Known about the structure:
Blueprint: E1 5-7, H1 16-27, E2 38-42, H2 50-57, E3 63-69, E4 74-79, H3 82-94, E5 97-99, E6 102-108, E7 114-116, H4 121-138, E8 146-152, H5 160-167, E9 173-181, E10 184-191, H6 194-204, E11 208-210, E12 213-220, E13 225-227, E14 235-237, E15 261-263, H7 322-327, E16 355-359, H8 368-375, E17 381-386, E18 394-398, H9 401-411, E19 415-416, E20 419-420, E21 422-425, E22 444-446, E23 472-476, H10 484-492, E24 497-503, E25 506-514, H11 517-527, E26 531-533, E27 536-537, E28 539-542
Parallel strand pairs: 13-15
Antiparallel strand pairs: 1-7, 2-4, 2-6, 3-4, 5-6, 8-10, 8-12, 9-10, 9-14, 11-12, 16-18, 16-21, 17-18, 17-22, 19-20, 23-25, 23-28, 24-25, 26-27
Helix pairs in contact: 2-4, 4-6, 8-11
Amino acid sequence: xxxxxxxxxxxxxxxxxxxxxxxxxxxxxxxxxxxxxxxxxxxxxxxxxxxxxxxxxxxxxxxxxxxxxxxxxxxxxxxxxxxxxxxxxxxxxxxxxxxxxxxxxxxxxxxxxxxxxxxxxxxxxxxxxxxxxxxxxxxxxxxxxxxxxxxxxxxxxxxxxxxxxxxxxxxxxxxxxxxxxxxxxxxxxxxxxxxxxxxxxxxxxxxxxxxxxxxxxxxxxxxxxxxxxxxxxxxxxxxxxxxxxxxxxxxxxxxxxxxxxxxxxxxxxxxxxxxxxxxxxxxxxxxxxxxxxxxxxxxxxxxxxxxxxxxxxxxxxxxxxxxxxxxxxxxxxxxxxxxxxxxxxxxxxxxxxxxxxxxxxxxxxxxxxxxxxxxxxxxxxxxxxxxxxxxxxxxxxxxxxxxxxxxxxxxxxxxxxxxxxxxxxxxxxxxxxxxxxxxxxxxxxxxxxxxxxxxxxxxxxxxxxxxxxxxxxxxxxxxxxxxxxxxxxxxxxxxxxxxxxxxxxxxxxxxxxxxxxxxxxxxxxxxxxxxxxxxxxxxxxxxxxxx
Length: 547
C-alpha cells in the first residue's frame, strides 16, 4: 500500500521529504508540532495495515481518512475534529502505543489534512473499508470477531491456507475451521478483534476469488469462540502451534462444548501426509530432486478433496483470474510471476508436487500422446512417462501443483479403455527425460513447448470452462465446409453418437453427445486436434451442457 493518497502541503507516498520531516521533528529535543487533525504514527511493524491504525484511534472520535506507508513503516490518521487528535496524542504520550506487540510513536503531523487521490482506488478502498469497519463497531453493541464464510459457485477448491492469506490482510487471524455443509465449502474464521472482522467482511463479502466464480459470502457468526482441537488441513489455531494433528482416520464434525462454542472438525490428514491441495498452484517447490523413473514403482496415494477458491493477487493466481487479481490487488497479497501455462490458485509451502501417478491403465492402448490429450483438459502437460517395467502406470508432470490436483479431482476413478484408472499425487517433483543416447521405446515425451496447451494464453476462457468428464463434448474451431454428418461419422468411430447440434449463433461450435462418459473420453482423446483442413484443427472439451 504505497501509493494513492495525497496529503495537503505536498505529502504523498512518493514524496518522502515531507514525511521524513515529520519524523525528524519528533526526534528533535523540544521540537513542537502544533495540533492538527492528522496524527502521525511511526516505527510500525512491517505487517501493520489500515485496520491496525484505526484501532489506535477509534476510542478518541470519528476518523475520516487513513494512509499507511508500508515502505516507511509510517502511517497518518485523520480525525473529523482536531480535539479527537489532541486526545489521542495526549493519551499515547502518557501511555506508549503498541501495534501488533511492537511499540510505536504517536505525534501530530505538520500537515493539516489528508486528501484522497481518486486515481488510485486500491489503497483508498482499504482505507475506507477499515474506517467503515471501525464506525460500524463503534456504533454497535454487538462486536463479533467470528465470521462465517461460504464459498458459493465454487469452481475451484479452497484451502485453509488460502483463506488465511486473504483474511490476514485485515488483521490477526486467530483460528480457522473449515467444513462442508450441504455440499458447500464453508469456514468459520475468528479474528483478533471486531474491527479486523468488520473490515474483512466489508472488503471481501460478495467478491470473487476467481474471475466469475468462487464467490465469498460473509456474515457474522453467533458463536463467541472457536475451540480448535487439532492443527491440520481442516482446522488451525494460530495461537497454539503445539496442538496435535489428531486422529488420521476420523473425518467428522465434532460439535460440542459450552454454548456459543464450536469444536473443530476432526482431521483426516497429518501434515506429514498428502494434504488436500485442491486446485492450488504456483511455481514448483524450490527443492526439486531429479529421479530416474525407469524402475519406479509407486502405490497410489488416496487424496482427500473438497471444494475450492481464486484471487486477490495471491502468489500464482490462475491466468483466468488475472483480471480479477489485478482488480483485487488492493488487499496487498503479493503475487509472483506466472509461467505461460499457469492456471489455478496460490501455492503454499505444503503444496506438493506437480507430478501425478496414473495407474491401472490399459497397457495395449496407453501412449504418451493419449495421456497428454486427456490430462491436457485440466492443465498444461509438460512431460509424460509410461513406466518401462510397468506399462499400466504412468507419471505425468503438469505445469504446476494446482493443475495436478485438478487432474486428480476430475480423472481419478474415471473409466478409460475399459478400466477404472487411479490418479494420485506422486512423491516426486519432476519427470526425468531419458539420458542422452538412452532409448525407452518412446515411452517418455516432453511437451513443454507444445502448441496444443490449452492454458498458456493469459486470460484464456479455457480456464473458466473446466468440467468433469461427461457424455456431452463441446466442439469448436469447426470450418464452414464441415457438416453434421461429417462430425457424427468421425465421432461414431469411437462410440455411439446419441445427439448433435450446432450452436445457433455460431456454427463454428457444436455439442455432441456420446452414449457413455467412457466413450466421450475415448472420442476426446482421438478427436481433439483432429485435422479438418489445411490449417484447421478441431478442439474438443467436456461440457456441462445438455442437448
